[in-house]
């Protein structure tokens, strides 16, 4: 994990769970400059290992992944007393209403269709953390 500059996310840790290394890197590049420490996992099984070993304040998960998909991961988290309070942003290419409902039914706190702008990703993550990023909202690209 690389050092992060001070920012609105200072002291918070995000876990990005996606089978695409490029997506994980892109989200890292969006969150680290805002002060979040970023951990990564390629699937739900690896994510649970990280969650049980590290302090994580917010989780960003893809829906479709090998070994354990995002829905199974969220269900496992919600069934675990130590993990159930971690907020989850489901970030996926799936935009069908039934996929959105399945995510919320599993316990996702927010849903975001990718690709999405850096400002929207930061806004959603900081909203889940209860942190305000300089008053920036989803339309504030420079935030």
Report, as a whole number of angstroms, the end-to-end distance.
23 Å
The count of DSSP E runs of length 2 or more, i.e. the number of strands, is 5
Query: In what range is the share of β-strand residues?
Result: 15-25%
The oligomerization state is single chain
CATH class label:
Alpha Beta
How would you spell out the order of helices and strands? EHEHEHEHEH
Q: What kind of sheet is the major sheet?
A: 5 strands, parallel
At the fourth CATH level, what is the homologous superfamily?
A: Response regulator
Gyration radius over CA: 14 Å
Pairing-aware structural class of the strands and helices? alpha/beta
Task: State the helical fraction.
Answer: 25-40%
Looking at the overall shape, the CATH architecture is: 3-Layer(aba) Sandwich
Query: What is the number of domains?
Result: 1
Secondary structure layout plus pairing:
Blueprint: E1 13-17, H1 21-31, E2 37-41, H2 44-53, E3 58-61, H3 70-78, E4 88-92, H4 97-106, E5 110-113, H5 118-129
Task: Write up this protein.
There is one protein chain. The protein is α/β, with parallel strands linked by helices and 143 residues long. The chain has a single domain (13-129), classed as Rossmann fold. It contains five helices and five strands. The protein has helices spanning 21-31, 44-53, 70-78, 97-106, 118-129; strands spanning 13-17, 37-41, 58-61, 88-92, 110-113. It has a five-stranded parallel beta sheet with strand order 2-1-3-4-5, sandwiched between helices. The longest helix is centred in the last third of the chain and has 12 residues, at 118-129. The relative contact order is 0.17. Residues 1-5 and 135-143 have low confidence and may be disordered.
